[in-house]
Amino acid sequence: MNLDNVIATRSNKTIYRDGDRCIKMFNKGYSKADVLNEALNLARVEEIGINVPRVLEVTMRDDCWMIVYDYIEGKTLSELIEENPDDKEKYIDRMVDIQLEILSKRCPLLTNHRDKMFRKISLSDFDPMTKYELQTHLNGMPRHNKVCHGDFRPSNVIITPDDRHFIIDWSHVTKGNASADVARTYLIYLLTDRKSEGEYYLKSFCKKADTPRSYVERWMRIVAASQSLKGNKDEYEFLSQIVNVVQF
After folding, report:
1. Consecutive H or E run containing 83
2. Mean per-residue pLDDT for 42-67?
């Protein structure tokens, strides 16, 4: 296994390419349960027909857990947008189509999105009254069982040279309400200072899915509270403003 070719780095992992394989190596001390769960999630969504890199093995080296999967040749939608800014809306529309394809799937064994959000709100730093209000709001939302990627963004969609698409980074996947997943993607746009792109994305999704924007916005306080656990102090003030709005 060759670990000379680094293709991406994150705060707690490094991703390498070794020929036609991709190796995600987690830092020492990273939760074994989380690594195994990520690999299991990837295998589950592969089995229901979503285009994802195949898991080949889960192993260890130098006390670090690794997931080995297919390397997908191509460019991310982020790269394509950067290279072709005049086609930005076309690529965002395609991203929406791919997200709708994912949301059309069902995978009963995935973690329930509502349960995950309830736990995250409980662990947040907001005051008890705010937590109670958020959890009450969450419990009142419609209960669905659609596959929700959980971190759907242009950099997690690869377009191959023959124009196929593959979706990567499934560590946050759950089953739940589609609009919650859309609210999460919209929040990512806001947090990365790409509001104009986010507005076009949300408009495109609501039109294609025939979903009122207000329905997606009802999830914003919940996903913002969840995001606050990331520990990013620069983001916390902005997220708190969303959480503390009675109706986003």
Report:
1. helix 77-83
2. 96
In whole angstroms, what is the distance from residue 157 CA to residue 224 CA?
Answer: 23
Residues 6+ positions from 248 with CB-CB distance below 8 Å: 217, 218, 220, 221, 242
> DSSP label at 108?
T
Using CB atoms within 10 Å of the CB of residue 147, give its burial: 0 to 12 exposed, 13 to 18 middle, 19+ buried: buried
Instruction: Please tell me the predicted confidence (pLDDT) of residue 231.
Output: 67
Is pLDDT at 246 greater than 60 in this prediction?
no
Rounded CA gap, 201 and 193, in Å? 14
* pLDDT tens digits for range 215-243: 999 999 999 999 998 767 788 989 999 99
Tokens 């394989």 appear where? Answer: 21
Show the tokens assigned to 24: 């995600």
Q: What are phi and psi of 15, to 5 degrees?
A: -115, 130
Phi, then psi, of 39 in degrees rounded to 5: -65, -40
Question: What is the rounded end-to-end Cα distance, in angstroms, of the chain?
Answer: 49
Chain centre distance of CA 156: 8
CA distances to 48, 187, 216 from 220, in Å: 29, 8, 7
Phi and psi angles of residue 165, each rounded to the nearest 5 degrees, phi first: -120, 145
